[in-house]
Amino acid sequence: MSWPRFGVIMIHDEADHIVSLVEKMAAHGEWHPIVGFSEDPAPRQIVQAVLDGAVEYVAWPVPAGELKDTLARAIEKTEAVGNTKLREVMARSRLERLTKRERQVLDGVANGLSNRLIGEKLAISPRTVEIHRANMLNKLGANHSSEAIRIAIEAALIH
């Protein structure tokens, strides 16, 4: 599959199509603004689509003028947040490689805890924390804990 250099992707909001598209873009290091659409969408469906990665949403069928305005807003948002969104998508993709325990260790590291304190919190030895920490850094492609924390922040998991 080849990705376009620029543009907006309109996708019918069914099942997990938006999530799946975001995952595929992340796997390819790409990000394009997504406009979701469906027939008579419920407010909750629209909110979920935006949380999943859509930058705009329209009810289908959509009048031509409204569609033009929606696409223009999506392009404006891309110019404003495109690079940030790409970094977020890439960071989320990296974090998905972590086990639950490695995520817990990353959370402890991000909160400034030592290996001993993380171990006490998780009821494991400090040596086991070190192993999980090393595995976490390796999977994230990070050389230092500060890089791992940056990746977590970019993924919007730590605020």
TrEMBL record:
Signal peptide: none
Matching InterPro entries: CheY-like_superfamily, Sig_transdc_resp-reg_C-effctor, Tscrpt_reg_LuxR_C
Sorted UniProt keywords: DNA-binding, Transcription, Transcription regulation
Lineage top rank: taxon: Bacteria
Pfam families: GerE
Segments forming domain HTH luxR-type: 91-156
SMART domains (alphabetical): HTH_LUXR
Keyword Transcription regulation in record: yes
Keyword Transcription attributed: yes
SUPFAM superfamilies assigned to the protein according to its UniProt record, in alphabetical order: C-terminal effector domain of the bipartite response regulators (SSF46894), CheY-like (SSF52172)
Record-linked PANTHER family: DNA-BINDING TRANSCRIPTIONAL ACTIVATOR DEVR_DOSR
Protein name in the entry: LuxR C-terminal-related transcriptional regulator
Organism of provenance: Novosphingobium kalidii
Taxon lineage: Bacteria, Pseudomonadati, Pseudomonadota, Alphaproteobacteria, Sphingomonadales
